[in-house]
Amino acid sequence: MKPTLPKSAHPSARSREAGTAPVVDPVAAAGGTAPLLSVRDLVKTFPGRRVLGRPAAPVRAVDGVDFELAAGETLGLVGESGCGKSTTGRMLVRLLEPTAGTVEFDGQDITHLSPRRLRPTRRHLQIIFQDPYASLNPRQTVARIIAEPLLVQGSTAGAARDKAAELLELVGLGAQHLDRHPHQFSGGQAQRIGIARALATGPRLIVADEPVSALDVSVQAQVVNLMERLRHELGLSFLFIAHDLSVVKRVCDRVAVMYLGRIVEIGDKREVYGAPAHPYTRALLSAVPLPDPAAERHRERILLLGDPPSPAAPPSGCSFHPRCPKARDVCRTERPLLDIVGPGARKAACHFPETA
Ligand code: SF4
């Protein structure tokens, strides 16, 4: 069944405030099954830093994010540093409390559940962090690190240790490492331990927050291969947060591009990478090196002007307009809605999207 959100003929029709528009469910549109994760108009605001003793404007780090994720699917979340992608990921696993909006997991609204009521769901919702050393307690053994989430869920110490040994095998290390400490491992091995810990409770969805960007290039591929294997063997879903678009292209089914706290384009990766609709996506992809040297020499690079604006003082209208090579007058005054472009379920927040 095709999505039914009407396409807007005029820019002004695409400029309603985010969160007020009907949201097409790409999962339901594709197959009619309920999504595993539904995120609606998610907002996170941080207090601004005081300047000369005066309170500064609050920082809207995430500014109305909507998306869905199907069981077994991997969605890539990309964008420049500070665009709000890690903050979004942390809200999904409740490491950060949303300022507004909702997070539904498997049909249950978990946005404001107390820690006690969240516990049964928490085991299905885990996170892998960017820096494996910072995320592993240096004073604990590997056995303890991996067993901890199981103990929290009520496992006995013996059962949790047996499971930790099993998980170390699963991630390509061995049970002989159980009594070692994190500093005795390389970065790639430490990230495998972080993955084993995330798998301990049998999760259905893992938020992977820049899981390979702190690793040497030589081991990035090994960890990515491991995550792909685990995804297929265990039927996992991933929200894969990254700034490396080559990695995202390889591991994800769909991709969402964030800019200044909002998703500006989301869709199947073949559509987004093959013919990006939003000027920001086009600029990001134009900077990704091509494997063919001849194609690389002749490609057109789109250089963005300046740095991203501060989320404490976002530009009016389309927040990308100060850097956009296609900006027109309407872009400075009317905020574009994330809306369907083209024949599929892909969406972009632009008054003048490329639709080729
Ligand atoms: Fe924003 Fe550029 Fe699209 Fe205008 S053309 S809405 S400035 S992305």
Which helices and strands occur, and which strands form pairs?
Layout: H1 26-31, E1 37-46, E2 59-69, E3 74-78, H2 85-92, E4 100-105, E5 108-109, H3 115-122, E6 125-128, H4 132-135, H5 142-152, H6 157-170, H7 187-199, E7 205-209, H8 217-234, E8 237-242, H9 245-251, E9 254-259, E10 262-268, H10 269-274, H11 279-286, H12 293-298, H13 329-333, E11 339-340, E12 347-348
Parallel strand pairs: 3-8, 3-9, 6-7, 7-8
Antiparallel strand pairs: 1-2, 1-4, 4-5, 9-10, 10-12, 11-12
Summary, kept brief:
By secondary structure, the chain is α/β, with parallel strands linked by helices.
Roughly how many Å is the radius of gyration? 21 Å
Q: Please list the strands of the largest sheet in the order they lie side by side.
A: 6-7-8-3-9-10-12-11
SS class: alpha/beta
How far apart, in Å, are the first and last alpha carbons? 23 Å
Q: Work out the helicity level.
A: 25-40%
Secondary-structure element order, N to C? HEEEHEEHEHHHHEHEHEEHHHHEE
Give the names of the bound compounds: iron/sulfur cluster
Characterize the main sheet. Answer: 8 strands, mixed
Top keywords for this entry?
eight-stranded mixed sheet, 356 residues, single chain, 12 strands
Description:
It is a single chain. By secondary structure, the protein is an alpha/beta fold. It has a domain at 278-356. The protein is built from 13 helices and 12 strands. The strands form 2 sheets. It has an 8-stranded mixed sheet with strand order 6-7-8-3-9-10-12-11, with helices on both faces. β9 (254-259) and β10 (262-268) form a beta hairpin. α6 (157-170) packs across α7. It starts with 25 loop residues before the first helix and ends in an 8-residue tail after the last strand. The protein binds iron/sulfur cluster.
